[in-house]
Structures are given as C-alpha cells and as structure tokens.
C-alpha cells in the first residue's frame, strides 16, 4: 500500500531529523501493537541505537511474558528483559485505590528506566506508542479532561530528562494495526486486544494480591479462549475478566462456599474513547460462566458488564 509506505517514510524521516547520529532511543516495549510498531519504526530510523526494554511487572496475563519475548525476537527486536515482578507486587501490597495503584506502577517503571538511562549516557530520547486517542484522554490537548492517568503518557519523560518521540501520535488504533501488518507484524499481534500498561492491576478491584491475580489470570484466559473458539475474539475491541473483593454464597458439591465474583466485560469500540457492550450469545456467556466456576475453585458467580462508555469506562480502574 502506497499510503502505508508514505506514512512509514514520513515517520522515519521525522525521527532521523530529530535524533542526532550518536543519540540512542529508549523504547519500553510491552508486546502490544503500539509499542511494537513504535520500536520497529525507531529501528528503521536509527538501527542499533534503538534500546528496547521489556519490563515484567508481574501483572501480565497467562503465558504472556514468554509469548511477547518470542514475538519481538522474531521481528528482530531483542529487548533488555527486566523481571521486576517482586518489586511491583511488594509495593502494591495494601493499596486499594485505583489512581494510587497507577501512580505506584508508573513510579516503579520510571525508577527502572532511570537506572537504565543513568548507565547509558547516550540515551537521549524516549519513544512512546502514544496514539491519537491517548493524547485526547490524557488531557494533553487543550479543552479535554483527564479521565485516567494512563501511565504511558504521564510524567515519565520528565523523570528521565529525556526528549520524547511519539511517532504514532496522529494515528488511530486501526491505522496502527494496518501499519503493523505492513511492517511484517504477525496478524495475531497486530490485532491483539489493547492491554493496559499497568496490566492486571487495573482489572483487580481493591488490593492486588496473589489470590486475586491467579483468579483474574485464569478467568481472562478462559474469556479469550471461549471467544476465539466461537470466532468472536477478532470482532470485539476488548474482552476480559475482572475480580474484586465482593463475595457470593455458592454451593459446590454439597458444601456452601463463600466465593469470589468474576465480572466479564466484552466491548466493541472504534478507538477506545466510547464503547458499547457486546451482545454475546447466551450460550457463549453460559460456556464462559461454566468454565470459570468449574476451573477456578474460588469463584462461585460470574456476571456480565452491560454498561456503555460513557458513563462507564472500559477498564474498572
Ligand atoms: P478506559 O478504561 O479509560 O480505557 O475506558 C480506554 C482504553 O485505554 C486502555 N487503557 C490503558 N492503556 N495504559 C494503557 O496503555 C493504561 O494505563 C490504560 N488504562 C486503560 C483500555 O484498555 C482501553 O482500551
């Protein structure tokens, strides 16, 4: 496609104009389409002066860390891998408030990146996969309200004293996905659902602990698997599970059991700024519910989230 070719040329040209021939560019890769495309574009522009970093914050989905590393390597991006899961989970202990969780996660990311930047004085730039809707929602354009502190747009560059590149700043998700395919990114990565930077921390209501993490991981995998099985995954914007602290009395076998409630959320959206819940067939919802309650012993109730954005948001936190 000539249009995609044009976009790539423009972006690469732009990066080369800004970044001096000895300067390095840090990119925090997550496995998502935005940061993957950002890294590929920066690599095209500055080659080996790209410094990709993948931080495991312990809030990834089942099997995600291995999958992401493998996908990136197959695209020629071999990130510095930092397993900081203990550090993140330790700092999140006892923290119930959403914005506080987000703040702590952002701060830990910043600490890790500042260590890297301190050790390599040639790193002068941070490239971020900010897309047009991120720009709007984070209130960095005049007249818009800040809805949530999406950490990937928040204060990171200030902390690090780096200059910022945002090559996707003018693109919508759909355009980023087409750009990804154009750059050779496999279809399942290009069309992967958005997954928030703070990971499962925003899909756990209240404190993040091992038990709730285990539940939300397993339940999310089940939601994704069942939707894929019914060819629904690619037709929706996001599909995931949420767990909080509320309990429901259940009967499993012949015992009463006070168990967790899992909320399933499946939405369609064009850009994440507004969303509608998907009218999933009852049989599919039933299958999700049966699998979650039978495969996760701590769960006795599954609910389906049926509120649009607005007034709700997509993620619970
Ligand atoms: P909300 O929940 O605000 O989400 O309706 C809108 C879209 O943004 C994603 N999201 C995030 N993405 N870092 C991200 O990179 C974040 O902190 C974050 N929080 C929400 C969300 O998944 C949805 O697609």
TrEMBL record:
The residues that hold ATP are 30-36
Keyword Electron transport among UniProt keywords: no
- Associated pathway: Purine metabolism; GMP biosynthesis; GMP from XMP (L-Gln route): step 1/1
Any one GO CC term of this protein is: cytosol
Taxonomy, superkingdom: Archaea
Q: According to its UniProt record, which reaction does this protein catalyse?
A: XMP + L-glutamine + ATP + H2O = GMP + L-glutamate + AMP + diphosphate + 2 H(+)
Which residue ranges does UniProt annotate as crossing the membrane? Answer: none
Keywords annotated in UniProt: ATP-binding, Glutamine amidotransferase, GMP biosynthesis, Ligase, Nucleotide-binding, Purine biosynthesis
Q: What is its EC number?
A: 6.3.5.2
Q: Which GO terms describe its molecular function?
A: ATP binding; GMP synthase activity
Looking at the record, the residues that make up the GMPS ATP-PPase domain are: 2-192
Function of this protein? Catalyzes the synthesis of GMP from XMP.
Q: What is this protein called?
A: GMP synthase [glutamine-hydrolyzing]
Organism this protein belongs to = Staphylothermus hellenicus (strain DSM 12710 / JCM 10830 / BK20S6-10-b1 / P8)
What lineage, starting at the top, does this entry show? Archaea, Thermoproteota, Thermoprotei, Desulfurococcales, Desulfurococcaceae
Q: Which residues of the full protein are shown?
A: 213 to 529 of 529
